[in-house]
Amino acid sequence: MFRKIALFAFTILFTINLFSQGVISSQGDSYTGPSASIDFTIGEVVTSTVSNGEKTLTQGFHQTNWSFVSIENHVPNYEAIIFPNPTDNFLNIKAISFKNVNYSLFDEMGKLVLNGTLCSEKTSLDVSKLHTGLYSLVLNNPENKLKTFNIIKTR
């Protein structure tokens, strides 16, 4: 009498998940070829441009939650403007009422990187040595926080 011997083959399946940067954008596209892929969005902040004479690559960075330029008016009747924004070398603060007004510039992590007092109707800040990124400029006097500006530092 023969016994049937059943052989079972077990297959072990596993899944590998790879995660990379993602972006939600209103404009842009992705292309994939046999040896490379490229993603791009329109409106990125440019961080560098490289060229070999034949081809040029402009590199930016994706931010999934990005607040470009904005102003918080803590004291609505206090008038001040900043320019240019985005900036790469100097940031100008223009305020007719500048006496006893201080400025504080914070990086994205909330670290104080520059501070001082407005010295005239137009005060220029040298931001050329700061890293590329988003900064907050707070203007205040001894009694009130006056305005907060979001600033983009390029290059």
What does this entry look like structurally?
- With 155 residues, the chain is mostly beta strands.
- The chain has 2 domains: 12-64, no CATH class; 71-153, Immunoglobulin-like.
- The protein has strands spanning 28-32, 37-41, 45-51, 56-61, 71-73, 81-83, 90-94, 102-106, 112-117, 122-126, 133-140, 145-153.
Characterize this entry briefly.
The protein contains no helices and twelve strands. The chain has strands spanning 28-32, 37-41, 45-51, 56-61, 71-73, 81-83, 90-94, 102-106, 112-117, 122-126, 133-140, 145-153.
Helices, strands, pairings?
Blueprint: E1 28-32, E2 37-41, E3 45-51, E4 56-61, E5 71-73, E6 81-83, E7 90-94, E8 102-106, E9 112-117, E10 122-126, E11 133-140, E12 145-153
Antiparallel strand pairs: 1-2, 3-4, 5-12, 6-7, 7-10, 8-9, 8-11, 11-12
Key terms:
Immunoglobulin-like, five-stranded antiparallel sheet, three-stranded antiparallel sheet
What can be said about the biggest beta sheet? 5 strands, antiparallel
Residue windows where pLDDT falls under 50 for at least 5 positions: 18-24, 62-67
CATH class of the largest domain: Mainly Beta
Q: Determine the N-to-C terminus distance.
A: 85 Å
Cα-based radius of gyration, to the nearest Å? 26 Å
Strand/helix succession: EEEEEEEEEEEE
Overall mean pLDDT stands at 77
Q: What is the correct CATH architecture of the largest domain?
A: Sandwich
CATH topology description of the largest domain: Immunoglobulin-like
Number of strands: 12
Which strand order spans the largest sheet, edge to edge or round the barrel? 5-12-11-8-9
Percent strand: 35-45%
| CATH superfamily membership of the largest domain | Immunoglobulins
What's the number of domains? 2
Helical fraction equals: under 10%
How would you describe the shape? Answer: elongated
